[in-house]
């Protein structure tokens, strides 16, 4: 900031013209009361665009001079603070001389006074300034902005504008008043006041919005009433139109179309019956020819069976003869081998006893094996007896118990195993494997019984599914699917039908792997989404269809035959072991096997020579019998198939014999009837407009009304509503509604716009003040740093507690700036707690005052202080003087004339004023005392 160097007054108050030097750090203006000390300060304030002290004004001083023009001129320092030209205080005003002239011209303007300002490079005289054009002169606002650019900030301007006596009473402020003064000096309080004014304006707008909302609510209520009336009116008109349309168009067209569709359907059915009848006639002719062929084939099959039975019996007799011839010889050979083995150990008692024990063990083992097989045969025989006379495979105990509980509860159901028949035996193993886990799934006839059935299943701990979502199997499943070889006599679970339809039947795994997807082979190898696995099931466990019983019986019978064969083998082995054991026991009693071999050697040798030929003859006879037995089984199976085909064909011929003639007569009668109806429908079609019976129009009618009966019911309902309902029949209600709708829309748009603008303004003000809180905090921190630094210069420890500042009105109103001082290490004292001396009180005030104008960014500056040494003793005056000299500011002080020379000790320049004599026009000249600078050698 710049320093004052000189001041010139021309016709200011009672000063005619004078020039005062101000180029010093401390300038003291001394004089008696009323001698013009404050007048000089007000001249400087006016020149700087500030308000005068007290109730005074620049107009008062201009009026006292009784002249048309008053001039105030000062020269100020404009030297740079560094090497750069831009650091000159007036560089922003494009003034780059080391000295700048500031001037204020006060002119009489009619009955009032007007002040104008200008600034120029160098020391420019008033006479030169008077020649400047009017465009170079500035108004007050522009002048203040120019000086603010030169460093005379709003904070310094507020300090310079403080009135007489206020500067030394700052320490008497409360913490809240001091914080407000800081904000006022730095310009923050004005911003806060503008924010508060904005908030008040927003509250007023909110009240207006509330009133507008009430008006809108009233208008909307009226609009709602009109909405209801318009709805009733439009509904009434719509029902009138609907009644007319139903009576004249919809019902006649739907009746005609339904009759036409029915006639067309019946004609198509008659055509299908005709085709089926012709097919039956052709089928009957074909069946008649096939019957003759089947009878011939049946006779040939029977003759073949008879011949094979005869050949089989002859082969069996030959086999038996061969076996009877072989058996004695085989027994002799075995006996010889046994004696030979016994002779090898009979000489050794130990080996003989071991042989006896071995044979005893074999005897015991064969006996146990025989008992086990005998028990298995009894079980199989019992199972076969239980299957005799049964139509279905037996159910597990838990299934029987659960189905009994369902019957007792009156819940209609069926088991999946009872309703599936496997139509193709080639795929029986595959179907049984896939359906194995679903045998005992319970399907409910009525889905409403699901809750009760599942409660029973929970109680009985039934492990199989209880299903209510069931469907009838399609009559045309995918030809290659597993579902195609199954027949359902009742509904099955929907998920099971979908699963079976997705499983494709393939010949083998190679075909399945090459095609991909889900498939199964005839040998029950199943590949699904998880991978492939075998689901083969033993035929004895088959469960589905009547063939399952036959498969179970065949399996049990095969098991019985196997058991019988095993029992026979055991009996033969028991006989051999018994014979060997008897011989071994005799050997222990002294009978020698070697002697028996020697006696019967010729007999045994003959048997050994005959046995191979006899065994070969028996094997040949057995092979011949096996061949005839297989041929006989094939012939019986072929005969059975032919018998079944013949029975079915004869039954079909008997059933169709009496139906064809009756069907022909019935078809003729119904065909003539439908032809007559078709002609009548065609005649009625010609009476309808073409667009009434267009395909799209008729389809739309069906989508809306379903059929003519529903349209008739709708007609009756509409007539009843028109007769009994409360309707609006005033045709002008729509115009009223349109007008009110526009009014409400305008009100709503205006209200929304005001709400949005008010909300945006409120949010913007709130956000701006929220951001400005940081500025307030920076202001307080800056002021605290200023007073702490100034206290250090004065030898006083100054501390200040930063107030809590937030974007809240209450917090801002209650915020305080608490400052404490510590003089000479005697402890902290507050702003005005009565513990400070007079000098300390002044120093506290000066620290607080100078802290308001201190700016590190713009060093220097000046302060106007009215009578800072009033009521101070010599010691305190010295303290105040030392403080003033320790700062870098320029001070302009006033003091009355006093005998205490300590008042003038810190001053570099002393201006002495005198009172104007009563008879004099102008005040006496002002004396100037300037301290001589001492130059140290």
Task: Spell out the key features of this protein.
937 residues, alpha+beta, Rossmann fold, 12% strand, elongated
Radius of gyration: 66 Å
How much β-strand is present in the residues?
A: 5-15%
Structural class: alpha+beta
Biggest sheet strand line-up: 2-1-4-5-6
Please identify the top-level CATH class of one domain.
Alpha Beta
**CATH hierarchy: architecture of one domain:** 3-Layer(aba) Sandwich
Intertermini distance:
32 Å
**Total number of β-strand segments?**
24
Q: Could you report the average pLDDT, rounded to the nearest whole number? A: 80
Helix content: 55-70%
The total of helices stands at: 23
- Say what the CATH topology of one domain is: Rossmann fold
- The best one-word shape is elongated
CATH superfamily of one domain: P-loop containing nucleotide triphosphate hydrolases
Biggest beta-sheet profile: 5 strands, antiparallel
Low-confidence stretches: none
Could you explain the architecture of this structure?
The chain has 937 residues and is α+β, with helices and mostly antiparallel strands. Among the domains are: 4-173 and 832-930, Rossmann fold (3-Layer(aba) Sandwich); 352-388 and 556-591; 411-541, no CATH class. The strands form 7 sheets. The chain has a 5-stranded antiparallel sheet with strand order 2-1-4-5-6. The chain has a 5-stranded mixed sheet with strand order 21-22-3-23-24. Strands 14-15-16-17 form a 4-stranded mixed sheet, covered by helices on one side. α7 packs across α15. The longest helix is centred in the N-terminal third of the chain and has 158 residues, at 188-345. The radius of gyration is 66 Å and the shape is elongated. It starts with a strand and ends in a 7-residue tail after the last strand. The model has no long low-confidence stretch (mean pLDDT 80).
């Amino acid at each position: 900031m710049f320093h004052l160097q000189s001041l010139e007054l021309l016709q200011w108050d009672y000063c005619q013209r004078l020039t005062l030097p101000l180029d010093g750090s401390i300038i003291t203006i001394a004089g008696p009361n009323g001698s013009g000390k404050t007048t000089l300060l007000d001249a400087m304030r006016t020149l700087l665009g500030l308000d005068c002290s007290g109730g005074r004004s620049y107009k008062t001083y201009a009026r006292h001079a009784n002249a048309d023009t008053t001039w105030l001129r000062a020269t100020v320092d404009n030297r740079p603070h560094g090497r750069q030209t831009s650091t000159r205080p007036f560089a922003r005003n494009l003034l780059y001389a080391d000295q700048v002239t500031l001037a204020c011209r006060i002119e009489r303007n009619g009955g009032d006074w007007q002040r104008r300002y200008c600034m120029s490079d160098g020391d420019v005289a008033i006479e030169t300034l008077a020649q400047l054009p009017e465009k170079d002169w500035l108004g007050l606002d522009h002048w203040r902005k120019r000086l603010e650019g030169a460093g005379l900030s709003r904070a310094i301007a507020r300090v310079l504008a403080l009135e007489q006596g206020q500067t030394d009473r700052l320490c008497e402020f409360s913490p809240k008043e001091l914080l407000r003064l800081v904000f006022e000096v730095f310009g923050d309080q004005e911003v806060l006041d503008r924010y508060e004014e904005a908030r008040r304006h927003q509250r007023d707008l909110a009240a207006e919005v509330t009133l507008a909302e009430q008006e809108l609510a009233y208008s909307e209520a009226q609009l709602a009433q009109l909405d209801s009336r318009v709805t009733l009116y439009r509904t009434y008109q719509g029902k009138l139109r609907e009644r007319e349309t139903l009576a004249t168009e919809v019902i006649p067209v739907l009746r005609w179309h339904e009759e036409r569709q029915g006639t067309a359907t019946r004609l198509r059915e008659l055509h299908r019956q005709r085709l089926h009848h012709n097919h039956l006639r052709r089928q009957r002719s074909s069946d008649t020819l096939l019957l003759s062929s089947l009878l011939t084939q049946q006779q040939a099959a029977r003759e073949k069976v008879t011949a094979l039975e005869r050949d089989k019996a002859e082969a069996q007799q030959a086999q038996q003869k061969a076996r009877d011839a072989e058996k004695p010889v085989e027994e002799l050979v075995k006996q010889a081998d046994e004696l030979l083995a016994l002779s090898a150990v009979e000489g050794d008692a130990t080996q003989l006893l071991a042989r006896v024990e071995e044979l005893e063990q074999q005897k015991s083992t064969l006996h146990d094996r025989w008992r086990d097989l005998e028990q298995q045969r009894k079980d199989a025989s019992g199972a076969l007896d239980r299957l005799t006379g049964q139509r279905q495979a037996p159910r597990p105990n838990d299934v029987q118990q659960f189905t009994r509980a369902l019957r007792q509860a009156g819940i209609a159901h069926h088991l999946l195993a009872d309703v599936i028949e496997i139509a193709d035996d080639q795929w029986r193993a595959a179907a049984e494997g896939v359906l194995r886990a679903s045998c005992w799934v319970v399907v409910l006839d009525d889905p409403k019984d699901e809750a009760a059935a599942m409660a029973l299943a929970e109680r009985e701990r039934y492990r199989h599914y209880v299903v209510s979502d069931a469907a009838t199997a399609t009559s045309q499943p995918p030809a290659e699917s597993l579902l195609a070889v199954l027949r359902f006599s009742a509904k099955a679970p929907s998920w099971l039908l979908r699963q079976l339809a997705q499983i494709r039947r393939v010949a083998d795994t190679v075909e399945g792997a090459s095609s991909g997807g889900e498939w199964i082979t005839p040998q029950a190898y199943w590949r699904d989404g998880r991978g492939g696995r075998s689901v083969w099931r033993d035929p004895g466990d088959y469960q589905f269809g009547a063939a399952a019983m036959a498969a179970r019986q065949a399996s049990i019978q095969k098991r019985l035959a196997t058991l019988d064969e095993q029992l026979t083998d055991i009996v033969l082995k028991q006989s051999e072991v018994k014979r060997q054991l008897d011989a071994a026991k005799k050997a222990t009693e002294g009978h020698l096997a070697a002697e028996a071999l020697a006696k019967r050697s010729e007999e045994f040798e003959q048997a050994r020579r005959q046995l191979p030929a006899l065994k070969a003859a028996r094997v040949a006879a057995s092979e011949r019998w096996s061949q005839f037995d297989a041929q006989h089984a094939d012939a019986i199976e072929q005969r059975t198939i032919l018998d079944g085909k013949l029975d079915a064909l004869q039954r079909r011929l008997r059933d169709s014999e009496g139906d064809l003639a009756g069907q022909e007569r019935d078809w003729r009668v119904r065909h003539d009837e439908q032809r007559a109806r078709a002609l009548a429908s065609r005649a009625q079609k010609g009476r309808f407009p073409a667009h009434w019976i267009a395909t799209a129009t008729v389809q739309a009618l069906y989508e809306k009304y379903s059929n003519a009966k529903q349209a008739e019911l709708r007609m009756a309902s509409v007539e009843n509503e028109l007769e009994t309902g409360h309707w609006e029949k005033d045709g002008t209600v729509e115009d009223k509604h349109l007008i009110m709708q526009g009014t409400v829309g305008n009100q709503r748009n205006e209200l929304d716009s005001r709400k949005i603008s008010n909300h945006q303004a409120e949010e913007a003000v709130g956000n701006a003040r929220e951001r400005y809180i940081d500025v307030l905090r920076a202001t307080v921190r800056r002021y605290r740093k200023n007073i702490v630094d100034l206290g250090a210069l004065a030898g006083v420890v100054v501390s200040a507690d930063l107030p809590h500042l937030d974007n809240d009105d209450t917090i801002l109103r209650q915020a305080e700036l608490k400052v404490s001082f510590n003089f000479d290490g005697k402890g902290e004292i507050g702003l005005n707690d009565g513990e400070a001396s007079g000098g300390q009180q002044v120093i506290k005030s000066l620290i607080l005052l100078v802290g308001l104008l201190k700016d590190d960014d713009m060093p220097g500056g000046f302060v106007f202080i009215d009578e800072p040494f009033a009521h101070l003793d010599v010691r305190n005056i010295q303290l105040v003087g030392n403080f003033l000299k320790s700062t870098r500011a320029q001070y302009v002080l006033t003091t009355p004339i006093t005998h205490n020379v300590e008042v003038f000790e810190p001053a570099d320049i002393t201006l002495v004023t005198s009172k104007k004599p009563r008879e004099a026009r102008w005040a006496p000249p002002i004396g100037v005392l300037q301290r001589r600078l001492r130059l140290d050698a």
